[in-house]
Amino acid sequence: MLLADFGTSYCKILDTEQDREPRIIATRDLDAAFIADLATGHNAARRSRRSINELTALARGGERLIGERDFLLLDCGSRDIKYVRYQGGRVTDMGWNAECGASMGFTIELLASYYQIDYNTLPVPETGFSITCGVLGMSHIFDAVVSGSSESEAVAKFVRGIALNAYRFAGSPAKLHLSGGLCDNPLFVGSFPCELIPLGRFVLLEGLRASMEQER
Amino acid sequence: MTLRKKKKIGIVGVPPLAVLREIISPETEIIDLDEPQVRASLDLTAPHLPRVYCAILRTVVLNVLHLELDAIYIDVGPGKCDCALHVATILRDMLDIPVTATRNQDTESFGTPLCRTRMRLTDKLLAITAGVRSISPHPPLPPCRPTAGFWGVPPRDFSLLELFPDTTHVYGWTRCMENKTPADLKLEAHVNPAVPTVFFAQSFCAKTALARHLAARHPQALYLDCDVSAGSSVRAKIEAFLELSGVRNARS
Q1: CA B127/CA B8 separation, integer angstroms
Q2: Contact residues on chain B for A95, CB-CB shorter than 8 A
């Protein structure tokens, strides 16, 4: 069965009969004729035979990967952030911010490319910008650079501000599980003021796998 | 023979029964201004109301800009909201027709058969909102066992109601509407803790505070606010919440 998480920037694809590991393909490079059997994400309804919504996939993936009755799982994508909270094995809260949390992941990647920055080499700054979204936050970078900060220092403060915003959106928990490509960004991961457990970018695929197995 | 033109009376909220008895007649047409009555952009209300304001009250102003009304009765007391109180002032200054502010504190219970029966949630809320223009209780209906709950006001965008099962019970101000006691805060705060419930409020409405508060105390709740229309994230939250709460076959 062909499972797909159609992200804004990257698609995560798993053929449950052939692949050992999921494949990651830039969304713009995905074959226009590609159709999954079961999918989630922005284009899932159009590019799959059956789709489930992203919050459901996130929650099901979290249930499988975390294996605890109480947890908070936050997914930071290219253009939105969403979370699910479980207490006593039941979902008690969830949120999906596609507006004010917009373009966080996308902007972080864009800035690395524009300023030629390697996030693996940037230390976590002591303070971050107070920002609510990627697009609005960029002006802080320009202001900081004009005021004499280095580009890398300004971008690091931006990333820390973005992480803090996501943390607050999730309800400022003491412990947080993180999903999404930003798990691979040490600056972003290190900027959360709480215990953080990165789960990687295949949590939603795992949720699809759980849904598939439930239906069998 | 010439047909006498009916007098068009707009109502906002749930006016007191005494007022309804006075204005409902064969010579009048009662129009619920809380509901979209015209196809036009809400931005047209910007000269009169801030853009960041309750979508229901922006709809009221949009309606009065397009309907040639003869009078308006707007409920502004504890059965509606302070925003309506200020909109009443604005309407008086905008229009050359009588704008009467009422404070519905009726306590006579009409019952809530629609809120508790098995029916498409959209149809339930359509029937309840239509009941605002009536002075009679809805005929009895058999209650069903609830599998989900919808707490709140009738949303500006009814499409979000399509996601709920037919066995959804209705709570909050909508239940107070059916009961004809819109200021009954005890009834408004009544919920069933055994039923997964979506606590809905219009964005920028004072009831967001009560919705969040009640959701936080409910063992299986989703707090949700929505402005003019239900976007994909709002719909996904409802869908996921119901599915993850074990409410299967949402439309059965």
Answers
A1: 21
A2: 237
Which residues in chain B have Cβ-Cβ distances shorter than 8 Å to A55? 236-237, 239-240
B70 Cβ under 8 Å from any chain A Cβ: no
Residue B93, judged by CB atoms within 10 A of its CB (0-12, 13-18, 19+), counts as exposed
ipTM: 0.77
Topology classification of domain B7-102: Rossmann fold (3.40.50)
Answer yes or no: do B222 and A93 touch at CB < 8 A.
Answer: yes
pLDDT in tens, A80-96: 899 999 999 988 888 88
Give the model's pLDDT for residue A99: 61
What is the phi/psi pair of residue A110, to 5°? Answer: -60, -40
Domain locations in chain B?
A: 7-102, 113-244
* C-alpha–C-alpha distance, residues A98 and B215, integer Å: 22
Say how far apart CA A65 and CA A206 lie, in whole Å.
8
Tell me whether B231 touches chain A (CB under 8 Å).
yes
Mapped onto helix, strand or coil, the DSSP state of residue A104 is helix
